[in-house]
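Internal ticket - ligand job 187, magnesium ion:
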Amino acid sequence: MIDPTNSLLYKNLDRLLLHSGEIAARVSELGREITRDYEGRDLVCVCILKGASLFFSDLIRAIDMPLCVGFMSISSYGSATKSSGVVRILKDLDKDIVGRDVLIIEDIIDTGLTLSFLIESLKVRGAASLRVLTLLDKPCRRKVELTPDYRGFEIEDYFVVGYGLDYDERYRNLPDIGVLRPEVYSA
Ligand code: IMP
Ligand code: MG
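stdout (C-alpha cells):
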C-alpha cells in the first residue's frame, strides 16, 4: 500500500475528500441496496470506462447475486476538467440488452451531459429497465435534468481525482479521492 506521507501521488493533493475506508463502507452499502432491489432479476451492470473501472470492480463484488457485466467507453470532448456535451461511443456493449435490467455504473455526474446522451442511446435498445448508479454526484453543476437512481456521495463543486477519476489521464491509481493543488492545473 502507498504511504501518503512519502508519496509522489499525494504530494500534489490540496486535500483528501474521501478516504478509501469511507469509500469501501459506502460501496458495501450500495451493494446491499442493489442486491435487495434486483433480487431475482436479470441484472446487467455496465461499467463506463475508464473512470468507473475501480469503483465498478469493488461494487460488483459487493452485490450478492449472479449478474452480468458490460463495458462501454465514451468520449466527451472538452478540456481536461470540463465536459462539452459532445459525446461519442468509442466502445459499445457486445451483447444485447433486450428484456434485461440494465444498471449503468458511472464515476461522477457533473453537468450530466455525458450521461444523458448515453441514456438516450441505450433507451431505444429494449431493456426491461435502465437505471443509473454513480459514485459521486455534483448536482450544483448540472446543465440538464438528471437524477441518478443511486449515488455514493454528493460533493460540492471541486474537481476531484483518484479511485478511477483522472486529471488529464493521471491520478486514477490514487486509492482515495482528493482535490488537486491548483498549481497542477496551471503547470
Ligand atoms: P459531465 O458530462 O459533465 O456530467 O461529465 C462527466 C464526465 O466528466 C465524468 O464521467 C468524468 O469523466 C468527467 N468529470 C467530471 N467531473 C470530474 C471531476 O471532478 N474529476 C474527474 N473527472 C470528472
Ligand atoms: Mg467518466
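Auto-summary: The longest strand covers residues 68-78. The pocket of inosinic acid (ligand 1) is lined by residues 51, 76, 83, 106-115, 159-161, 165-166 (CB under 6 Å).
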